[in-house]
Amino acid sequence: xxxxxxxxxxxxxxxxxxxxxxxxxxxxxxxxxxxxxxxxxxxxxxxxxxxxxxxxxxxxxxxxxxxxxxxxxxxxxxxxxxxxxxxxxxxxxxxxxxxxxxxxxxxxxxxxxxxxxxx
Length: 119
Fold this sequence. Notes:
CATH superfamily of the largest domain: Cytochrome c-like domain
Shape: globular
Number of strands: 0
CATH class of the largest domain: Mainly Alpha
Strand content: under 5%
Number of helices: 5
CATH topology of the largest domain: Cytochrome Bc1 Complex, Chain D, domain 2
Low-confidence stretches: 14-22
Largest sheet: none
Structural class: mainly alpha
């Protein structure tokens, strides 16, 4: 095998592994258990930063969890209830999560808030 072909094959393998690991915890380790739960369950719709800036929810102010607009309440308990039960037609419920995971996730959601008002 020529050296050029070998280098091209090695580069292709590295590229494939790089794409495969792009979302992996080894590349970008979660900052907390709540952050990992967020990435695994919520970031697809609410965005990695919680701003709701995703193709499916862009322009939906309730998908933005970093502001002061909290349609279903902004306390840890209210957020936990919303996570568990979902919002009809807008967000699925995550009943498969344990109570401990819902609590961790609710606390993480509260940490995303960057507004000036309290919940």
